[in-house]
Design goal:
The structure is a homodimer of 316-residue chains. With 316 residues, chain A is α/β, with parallel strands linked by helices. Helix content of chain A is 47%, strand content 15%. Chains A and B meet through helix 12 of A and helix 12 of B.
């Protein structure tokens, strides 16, 4: 299996840099004092569609053979990848087909519709999602873009670390969340080849610890009935992401939801930015394992900011 | 009465620029498309203490005679000015005395305490606040720093526009909220002397329309029983701010709370940043008076981001 290299991520960056947002890096002296560390937050919550996923979607489409793109792109997703792929397709003038479970939040359905995707609803099970997608791909001949187990998606996600390290080049540690492993894989490849001394930790929900178990048992463990508020971190690793993570990872840190909630409150309240639980878990890891991070320069990738504002009591 | 000049604001900027945060300017293509305009948001919600007030507090302290500062500074406030003055005093190694109404939100009391201020509680009426403050000032000989009706506070607040216009120098319009008028006054002086063609509009809550009535009747009208969610915009103008506003203002736009809520939702959801209602009212004005802003380059000063996160249902 061919794994991406640092150079593949640099190529991806040059390809997508005019499409994606160069997101800012935020710091907070309050949080630094609180945890006796220096934190650098890469704000992918400000990325287009509100999540890093837009990077990988753009890169995957731009690396697909033009002849194959005539028929559009397709995926199944109830979350940020659906929005990312449909917006990237819209910008690049390509048709997109998205299979969404029929219990997807209305706000996400509307966003995907707004980007002009053709939506097909299915039962909210993995097998229904896959079989519906297969039908769509068969009918339309559209190109399936996997949300994370895809060479070019991984390279695209790695460009967040490229931007981070080009700006702050003396980080001791980088933390990313891990769900399917696309962001973590891209981060590992770029950072470890940028400077092998940088430690890369993944933050994984205690109640969705399949990546932790996979690395421990040296075989992909499935995520079955995961229980966590981190709704972006429910999926299992793929073979590509498993291999990359297994090659490079320093440690997967399991984080209970109460640390993630505490982290999310701190980020909202002190930094005045909106992040989703799946992003806040990175600071949750700093709270839980504070000793590991003391007096270090730590990059945290705030992966996204898509929370359902309608559910927030403030507005009711 | 001596009004500040553009040069006074430039002097203030040089004095405070290493203490205050140079806040970023955000844009949103979604909002621009939605309202057919180009919006530039000056993010004072990212300012220290979460509001522009820190600028004025720093400048006021730095312009007070050193002999007078020996005894510290004092003010009465339940809100952002209390935090701003106490943090500025702490950084500059000066004692601070804050009179707070006994019904102030705990989160604000704790913040002021955290900055090392000495708090005196009083009944939540203006007369109790003023008489308690007078006692404190008499006992301590501390220097009273008014939250807005103060020459140097106005100059400090004007530095937000200085930063905005130095970065985006071809704005057609600037909008700020108006409460006591400190931010609006500083904005007017800087912007109108930077380029007299720039229109400056104030956004004022429909249910707290004393500034609107003051300019109309050409005499300061008091804010009596104001009704609005914009808790930072409840106060009346002072004689200094009234005079500046009356000299320079293009128009005060009254904005009903439902526009402000709509605006706040849009900013949270689309821009992923936390702003308080008193800041969101600027976008509320763009929503209500959309025609006025079409095809213009509009600067909006997002004055603050202090909402009580504990009250947000998401976390309960």
């Amino acid at each position: 299996m061919k794994l991406p290299s640092k150079n593949d991520i640099e190529i991806a960056y040059n390809l997508i840099k005019d499409l994606v947002k160069h997101t800012p890096i935020f710091t907070s002296s309050t949080l630094n004092n609180m945890f006796d560390t220096k934190l650098f937050f890469k704000c992918e919550n400000f990325q287009k569609v509100g999540a890093f996923k837009f990077r990988g979607a753009c890169n995957a489409i731009l690396n697909t053979d033009k002849d194959n793109l005539k028929n559009g792109v397709a995926t199944h997703s109830s979350g940020n990848h659906a929005q990312a792929l449909s917006l990237a397709a819209k910008i690049l003038n390509i048709k997109s087909y998205i299979v969404m479970p029929n219990n997807s939040p209305k706000v996400k359905i509307n966003a995907v519709k707004g980007y002009g995707a053709e939506i097909t609803f299915c039962e909210p099970t993995l097998s229904a999602r896959e079989s519906t997608l297969n039908q769509i791909v068969e009918q339309t001949k559209a190109e399936f873009i996997h949300p994370y187990n895809n060479f070019f998606v991984v390279c695209g996600q790695g460009t967040a670390s490229l931007e981070l390290l080009n700006e702050i080049n003396d980080l001791d540690i980088i933390i990313t969340p891990v769900g399917g492993g696309g962001l973590l894989s891209g981060t590992l490849i770029y950072s470890k080849n940028f400077n092998p001394k940088i430690k890369v930790y993944a933050a994984e929900p205690f109640g969705a610890d399949d990546a932790f178990r996979s690395i421990k048992s040296q075989i992909i463990q499935l995520s079955i009935n995961p229980k966590t508020i981190c709704d972006g971190l429910l999926t299992s690793l793929g073979d590509l992401t498993y291999n990359i993570i297994n090659n490079y990872i320093d440690e997967i840190l399991l984080v209970e939801d109460h640390y993630t909630i505490e982290a999310m409150k701190l980020i909202w309240e002190r930094m005045k930015i909106i992040v989703e639980p799946s992003a806040s878990i990175t600071l949750g890891a700093v709270i839980k394992y504070n000793e590991t991070f003391k007096n270090k320069k730590v990059g945290l990738i705030l992966s996204g900011g898509n929370v359902d504002i309608a559910n927030i009591n403030y507005f009711n």
